[in-house]
Amino acid sequence: MSTPDQPDQNPQPGGTPSGPPAYGAPQPGQPQQEPQAPQYGAPQAPQYGSQPPQAPQYGAPQASPVPGGTPSYAAPAQDPGKTMGIVGLVLSFLGCLSIVGLILSIVALNKSKKAGYKNGVALAGIIVGAVVLVISIVVGIVLGIGIGAVAEKCEELGPGTHYENGIEYTCPG
């Protein structure tokens, strides 16, 4: 033992002269080992004070980012294509915008599928958009044929108002 006037001539490795050895330091009388690098794929010992990672549970209070703060609650995950699916469905009902609604509904359904959700609103938007688009195309073709027939009849009759087979034709002059 040494006195305060004469410090210990052989300090213990890893320890303080007047206390126990530090955590992880070799004990007195044990051979010293050189630190080894962990092997690839070898299991690692957990670090002191570390905890295994855990997934947050729905509705479970989360640790506050401010020490001493109140715990916050995790918001439920939302479908990323839900709003776009609603917009797509609404636009699908409009004849001239049904193609836009159809495209938005398809994009919304794909976003929802990637996130693991089912999006019935987007599916309805696809169906309604496709049906309204087909009806719009048919109506456009019928109107085009009708306007073409009236234009052809006006060429035959000339400018003015004409009555033929109970039908009145007003042709521009």
Task: Give a description of the structure.
There is one protein chain. With 173 residues, the chain is mainly alpha-helical. The chain has a domain at 82-163 and 165-169. It has three helices and four strands, in the order ββαααββ. It has helices at 82-92, 98-115, 120-157, and strands spanning 61-62, 72-73, 160-164, 167-171. A two-stranded antiparallel sheet has the order 1-2. A two-stranded antiparallel sheet has the order 3-4. α1 packs antiparallel against α2 (98-115) and α2 packs antiparallel against α3 (120-157). The chain is rod-shaped. It starts with 60 loop residues before the first strand and ends with a strand. The mean pLDDT is 78.
Which short descriptors sum up this protein?
3 helices, 173 residues, 39% helix, rod-shaped, two-stranded antiparallel ribbon
Shape: rod-shaped
Annotation, overall tally of beta strands: 4
Question: Which structural class best describes the helix and strand composition?
Answer: mainly alpha
Average of per-residue pLDDT values: 78
Work out the radius of gyration.
Answer: 41 Å
Strand and helix order: EEHHHEE
Determine the fraction of residues in helical runs and give it as a percent range.
25-40%
Strand content: 5-15%
Q: Uncertain runs with pLDDT below 50, 5 residues or more? A: none
**Largest beta sheet: strand ordering:** 1-2
Straight-line distance between termini: 127 Å
Number of helices: 3
Largest sheet: 2 strands, antiparallel
